[in-house]
Amino acid sequence: MKFHWFHGMPWPHLPPDFRDRSNSVWVDVDSRYYDPIVGHRLYHEYLDQMEYAEQVGFDGLIVNEHHQNAVGLMPSPQLMAAALARRTTRAAIIMLGTSLPLYNPPTRLAEELAMLDVLSGGRLVAGLPVGTTMDACFAYGANPATIRDRYREHHDLVMRALSEPEPFAWNGEFSKLRYVNIWPRPIQQPIPVWIPGGGSAETWDFCAEMGYSYSCLSFDGRFHAEEVLDAYWSRLAELAVPFNPYQGAVNQTFAVAETDAEARERYDPHLHYNWYVGKHLDPRWANAPGYTSERTMRESGAATQAPPTPEPSFDERIASGTLIAGSPESVTEQVEDLVKRLRVGHLIGVFQFGDMPTELTNRNTRLFAEHVIPRLRHLWGEYVDHWSPTPLNRPEAIGRDQTESKTSEQAETLELAGIN
Amino acid sequence: MAELKTLDLRPGGQTAHVWEGGDPASSALLFLHPVTGIPRWGDALEALAKDFHVIAPYQPGWGPAKDDLPGVRDGLDLVLFNVDLLGTLGVDSAHVVGISIGAWIGAEIAAIRPDAVQSLTLVNPLGLWSENHPGEDLFAQHPGHPTAVLFSDPDKRAELLMEGRDALDAYVEELLDLRASAKFLWPIPDTGVGRRLMRIDTRTLVATSANDNIVAKEMGDIWRAAIPGAQSVELADSGHLADLEAPEALSNLVRDFTLSGA
Fold first, then answer.
1. CA distances from A171 to A176, A177, A178, A180, B173 (A)
2. Cβ A15 vs Cβ A361: under 8 Å
């Protein structure tokens, strides 16, 4: 079983009356809430949190791409991945993802993936989503009527650019390049690909066709994710793809403390912030016409004007599965249940949310790494993970040597987590 | 009475889904639908069919032609589709009436194939952009009622566009019609037709609707000024979809303008 550490990089300083003062957290959010001086410190804190996650035993560090968004400060996941590549040595660097249709020419993305794979010593996972309608269509102007065709063409071009040793010409509908011949070339052939998505049938078929791993990125909770993943695994079975839990991933928010009571007390304010600002999305940005295929529209039914939902309580979050919280024992039990029900080999943990400070984030991370990972590491041991990177072995790989710099406490944690 | 026909335009070319009504011996009128397509053979078309041989095709990508969208990339492809359709029907030239996105297509036909256009009526035309008069964003709408903004009163959507149709079908078709529109108008409805409007030498009328949230009436002035000799007029009591909201006023306006020049 693999455990990964996801950062959303939210802006933690929005005012308590943000919803009254701003139309939406995404697309047209008021840029004057951002303070670049504070942002300077924040980026370093957030990267420190990710480096800490590697030190205590997480398998992968996950960055992502959002635009014009106050709760996602990574317009370029490649920049964050580059920073992590220099300051980490072991963990996979997982871009989940970089929005494939938005790069022009798409070979720019192929080059950056190759650069990151070389820089990190072969630790890259390329997550290749279409991008949300807010990011791709409204912020970046991608045409929703053609974005899926563009995605497919960019995919084919990028994959060929990463693997084809000879220069080639690309005469596509969206890109015309007379000479494709990228430098540098990646260490991994191929770089593992994960496809993040909500629950569209086309995405599952694409994963089956290409042999990619599907990441169910749902913030509606694990019970909803269970329905999605059930449908995904069924679809793979229909398409005669042999079951392997590592061909699936799911995200989950965690709040780990010494006791259940402490978890509630310490994390609740940050869950509130996360909900209050993160869910403040103008529905006008939610569905550019054409972004959702006819097949998915028909399967998901007509949109309705649902009234805004009230904020769930701490207990309601747990009951709905959007949160796994409590003591390490309680969390271990819930994670084991989740992993077995959803049958996934990659768990994407969210340990920082809302305005949670570094001290609490690191505590959340450490308790999970020390107490939960070691007890569940053995799960799915009978399967081979084809979707994690195959990094260089030493002495070829260079970088900060953690075997010398880590403290004895960290060494013990790593050992507990099953990492030498 | 009208008939919905399916025609193959030319070997290896496209298939047209076209409403045809009125007396084939009358003057031909090519009706170019708005962003919402042609939900039915409605009152506006019925009224026009009293005086004209009405030819009202679904543009590739709309309605029953929803799967034909990949076959058209730009305005030139749409011009060729309509010109091929007239040719297939044996019509040398027609009065061209375009609403909304259809007005853009009509203007392109008149600029590129002036011989095929006897007169041009552009109603609530999309295709030019002015920062001073941007109008509402046609594509940034609540997913529960994505075309309500096109009506002078949002409640009219249920009555004029959705009534009598299966709810899921109507919703999916509504979004697919908008998808087709987005192919040509996303993210800013500037199609480049502004560079070609000075080529139009046919009689042209530009009409704007008083309660159109998408196309400001000032845009009518910009279109009129760009087309040599064009006239302009305002349609009262209608939103963007004048064919649905003001069928009588629209058909009267078209008849009066078109026949006055005959």
1. 5, 7, 8, 11, 33
2. no
Interface-testing mutation among A132, A150, A287, with chain B (most B C-beta atoms within 10 A): A287
Give the residue from A246, A245, A194, A196 showing the smallest Cα distance to A216.
A196
Give first-to-last CA distance, chain B, whole Å: 25
Neighbouring-strand partners of residue B234: B208
Q: What are phi and psi of A215, to 5 degrees?
A: -110, 115
| Interface contact flag, B182 A292, Cβ < 8 Å | no
Tokens standing for residue A87: 């300051």
Contact B168 A301 (CB under 8 A): yes
Give chain B's residues under pLDDT 70.
262
Token representation of residue A33: 């809430």
Longest Cα separation, chain B:
46
Give residue A76's pLDDT band: very low, low, confident or very high (50, 70, 90): very high
φ/ψ of residue A49, rounded to 5:
-65, -40
Of chain A, the percentage scoring pLDDT greater than 90 comes to: 85
**C-alpha to C-alpha distance for B72 and B75, rounded to whole angstroms:** 8
CA distance linking residue B173 with residue B176, whole number of Å: 5
ω before A245 within 30° of 0 (cis)?
no
Tens of pLDDT along B201-235?
Answer: 999 999 999 999 999 999 999 999 999 999 999 99
Domain count across chain B: 1
Q: Do A145 and B69 touch (CB under 8 A)?
A: yes
CATH number of B178's domain: 3.40.50.1820
| pLDDT tens-digit map of A46-68 | 999 999 999 999 999 999 999 99
In chain B, what residues touch A303 (CB-CB under 8 Å)?
143-144, 171
Answer whether B186 sits within 8 Å of A304, measured CB to CB: no
Residue B262: inside a domain:
no
Query: Which has the minimum average pLDDT: A215-219, A238-242, A377-381?
Result: A215-219
User: What is the DSSP code (8-state) at residue A371?
Assistant: I
**String of DSSP letters for A45-56:** HHHHHHHHHHHH
* CB neighbour list of residue A331: distance below 8 Å, 6 or more residues apart: A254, A256, A324, A325, A368, A371, A372
Tell me the CATH class for A2-288+311-416: alpha beta
Most confident range (mean pLDDT) of A56-70, A189-203, A217-231 is A56-70
| CA-based R_g, chain A, Å | 21
In this predicted model, what pLDDT tens digit does every residue of B82-95 receive, in sequence order?
999 999 999 999 99
- A145–B143: do the CB atoms touch at under 8 Å? no
Task: Tell which residue, A71, A68, A112, A67, has the closest CA to residue A93.
Answer: A112
Determine which of A284, A292, A296 to mutate to test the interface with B (most B C-beta atoms within 10 Å).
Answer: A284
Asked if residue B23 belongs to a domain, the reply is: yes
Q: Which residue has the tokens 């965690």?
A: A254
Q: Which domain holds residue B128?
A: 2-257
B208 belongs to a structural domain: yes
Report if residue B74 sits inside a domain. yes
- In chain B, residues with a C-beta closer than 8 Å to the C-beta of A145 are 69, 179-180, 182-183, 186
Distance, CA of B120 to chain centre: 12
| HSE, side-chain direction, 13 A CA sphere, residue A38 | 10
Per-residue pLDDT at A404? 46
CA atoms within 13 A on the CB side of A346: 34
SS3 per-residue string spanning A390-410: CCCCCCCCCCCCHHHHCCHHH
Whether residue A408 is predicted with pLDDT greater than 70 in this model: the reply is: no
Beta bridge partners of A4: A60, A348
